[in-house]
Design brief:
heterodimer, A: about 200 residues, mainly alpha, B: about 150 residues, 3-stranded antiparallel sheet, 3 strands, about 55% helix, elongated
Chain lengths: ~200, ~150
């Protein structure tokens, strides 16, 4: 999103770059950090919402993502990878949340709200857009995290393979492999809606 | 192959058509607030801990264990109890001194048999007899009715 030239000083009146906002944020400029949050909040909220399948939890995780980012501002060196860095933090938080929920689910299986169980598959019904989206989101949410993350980053957020690799700490080859697997699993889950035999 | 291509395309269309979820209004402001709150715990954290510690110390100091010496009426009550116990002890000592030395031998239906050692000692001759005391008839049982004091 930000090319290398964007990182140079801009004339007055032009949008502030991420690097400038980061520098000012490190100097405890609250307004600068808020501007940084506003610039990337939709990305993080949408990503966590698709990963968790629950909007309220997604907003909590997104908030926590930015809080953690702020706490460790000195660790990040701006090289045009801020999106990947933010999504990395968000992915780690999602992972922690899911581990926590799995533990509670073992203890209280009837109490934990599982959004997936709200929607019953209905192959007989016509495939309306809303129903299709629900089934797709359900299928995405059921994926293992290592497949879900690259799928959401690539197919929904549009990140490049390189960025996804940085976010997940894996090679581009691994990203492509996991992405291929994720798509195969999603297609299998949506077979009745994709009109045919499972791949 | 064509079928796979079709399903891939359908999946792509489906994924791209997902509505984007935007951050709610005030999200950035809340994040800033969270950061400010998160920056404070190092200062605030000690406050409730110190408060709790102070409350515990105050409770210990206020407890009876560390209270001032008991009021005078408690001391008077203690004195009274001491005198009563001392009197009871003295009575027991007198009783012990005055009690006749007896050995309990057994009891019948309505009678307890005891051996009065005191009487036995008074009636015993200076020289030891050749016969046993029982044979000489000197061990005289003292009859008591049930309930009598020795």
């Amino acid at each position: 999103m930000y090319a290398e030239t964007d990182l140079l000083a801009e004339p007055a009146g032009c949008a502030t770059t991420d690097r400038e906002l980061l520098e000012r944020s490190r100097a405890r400029d609250e307004a600068a950090f808020r501007a940084l949050v506003e610039r990337h909040q939709d990305l993080v909220v949408n990503y966590t919402a698709r990963m968790l399948g629950c909007r309220s939890r997604a907003e909590d995780v997104a908030q926590e993502t930015f809080v953690r980012f702020y706490r460790h501002l000195d660790r990040y060196h701006e090289q045009g990878n801020l999106r990947a860095y933010l999504l990395r933090i968000a992915t780690n938080l999602v992972r922690s949340r899911e581990r926590h929920r799995r533990r509670w689910r073992l203890l209280l299986p009837t109490v934990i709200d599982d959004a997936a169980r709200r929607f019953e598959p209905s192959p007989q019904t016509q495939m309306l857009a809303a129903e299709a989206h629900r089934q797709l989101l359900d299928a995405i949410r059921r994926l293992d995290l290592r497949y879900r993350a690259p799928l959401v980053m690539r197919e929904i957020e549009g990140l490049a393979y390189r960025e996804i690799g940085l976010a997940l700490g894996v090679s581009e080859g691994t990203v492509k492999s996991r992405l291929h697997r994720a798509r195969a699993l999603i297609k299998r889950a949506l077979t009745p809606y994709l009109g045919g035999n499972p791949t | 192959m064509s079928h796979h291509h079709d399903t891939d395309r359908q999946l792509d269309d489906l994924l791209r058509s997902l509505p984007r979820i935007a951050a709610p209004p005030g999200f950035a402001a809340r994040a800033s607030r969270s950061i400010r709150t998160a920056a404070r715990p190092r200062i605030r954290l000690w406050l409730p801990v110190a408060t709790a510690a102070a409350a515990i110390i105050a409770a210990i100091l206020a407890s009876p264990v560390l209270r001032d010496p008991p009021p005078r009426r408690d001391i008077a009550a203690l004195d009274e109890e001491y005198r009563r116990l001392a009197a009871e002890l003295e009575a027991l000592e007198t009783l012990r001194a005055s009690a006749r030395p007896v050995v309990y031998l057994g009891s019948g239906a309505q009678t307890d048999f005891v051996l009065d050692l005191d009487r036995l000692a008074r009636r015993r001759p200076a020289r030891a007899p050749r016969q046993s005391p029982m044979q000489a008839g000197r061990a005289l049982p003292v009859r008591f009715e049930k309930g009598d004091q020795p």
